[in-house]
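Thread: "does anyone have the structure for this chain?"

Original post by V.I.:
We have the sequence but no experimental structure in hand. Need at least a predicted one for the grant figures.
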Amino acid sequence: MTEEQSLELQVRPTVRRPLVSYEHLVQMNSKNMKRLNVRCGQTILAIGVKKVIFKVFEEGKIIEKERQLSITAIVHQPDDNLSDNEIRMDQTLRNALGIAAILKGDERVIVRRFERQRPHILTLLLKKILGTQDEIVRVHPSDIPYMEKGVCATEKRLMDVIGAELGDYIELIKGNNSISLRTVELTEEMKSYREKQSKENPVRFPPCLECLKMEPPDLPWLFIDLHSREALGVQLCDPIIIRRDVRHIFYKNLTPFAMVILVTLMGAALNVTDILLKIILFIISSGIALAMIFYQMRKKLVP
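Reply from O.Q.:
Generated one for you, tokens below.
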């Protein structure tokens, strides 16, 4: 990455953004967009300049390590009222990087063009047709009942925001890494107990806001286990993007459509006189019925 393709800019809040946006946005002036070789709708990587200190357990002792948080964002229309030293960022993005909602004027980020891998053609098509709502969450360690089962715990109200239901699969995204996990509810009791754990064992359960030196509220919490964190390439307290898994949603809602086809085929089988055609229609109807039964039995565990 050359020096010209990476800029360090002062953070400003977004203004005159769309009332409805399915992704979180940044704005730069036309000159900086040209320097980064990005256009409206493309993706940039934003890295917080502020170094965050976390305590970790390594080689039998507790040590302090510094990290810089990062998140990807979509470039909005250029704002030529901005200077060459400034960038506008949605509050959710600022919060993700550990930047307070009320800016003091010295907050800075490093931005560079991000080449996002093209998703599977079916996923891309379903996303355009069905739509998705991105949400940014903060990574926390999973509880033992949910470890090593391919599940994540999040709040029900967050699932409502992204257009999914508890038990559905959601896509977790960090850069070009993504995984799909089944959701279970993160209750207020679980959050309260986790806050207690953070006070008793801040190394294993880091208090993210305290590490970021921020006042509440924070991003929504997401509990995932070590294997999921390694697959995404993230650490505790990192921000990641989640959205509903459109392929899961599509397959899930095929059942009513399949039921209509099944009833139609069964009606046709009753009315035809040709024995061979009647047998063929019966076999097809039975196959659809069995497929629906198997899917209903598997959909809570398999995407």
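V.I.: this helps a lot. The CA atoms of residues 26 and 184 lie 32 Å apart.
O.Q.: and The longest strand covers residues 177-185.
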